[in-house]
């Protein structure tokens, strides 16, 4: 991910929340295989686990505070065994049998990447830059968006005969269903639960999926919402998106305003005014 300092988002709590609110991640792997493509991706809804007692280290320098989280959390998901990416994972795991873990799963030595997109993104027309466009015309189109990138080692539960695999998959599908029913759908009263389906049916489906678990080793974030522009142009962008009258337009306008205010506060701190 190309990260200009002005667009970089390093607050771990913010990125964790972005993932929780937008759990459909794009898993990318680069696995050398005689049977499958090197690069493969799949859209997978994830559950994010973050220990309640996560340690943080805080350093204060030049008037700014930086907090480093020592445990970035773990992502849990599952894939269909018929997915070519899952087949490539299982093929690679067969060649790394010595990497078995105490939990009965296997972990690949190379990193994988998961991309999570924020809720709003949109083309930005130069017409919105109401300060610079009339003055100099030196403006070009761009695209506003937000995203989080996760890097880590992937652990795979694919032996359907192993008790550890069955336990992991049962926990995974229950937690994912609960997350989607309550957080996404808002069904806090009598949400659908896995136990509502016949047990034999669930067991059959579990035999056709693999569990995946990624221990997060690096977490990067980007929020590109016109904060690099001057105040006049930002206000033009806000008004332009509000005028669209859409949910996306309203969401981007709100985020542009928030990021602009953050930018102005940072400038005051840097100049010693605050």
TrEMBL record:
Residues 252-274 are annotated as: Disordered. Residues 255-274 have a biased composition (Basic and acidic residues). Gene3D superfamilies: Electron Transport, Fmn-binding Protein, Chain A. InterPro entries: Split_barrel_FMN-bd, TR_PAI2-type. Pfam families: FMN_bind_2. It comes from Aspergillus saccharolyticus JOP 1030-1. This is Putative transcriptional regulator. Transmembrane segments: none annotated.
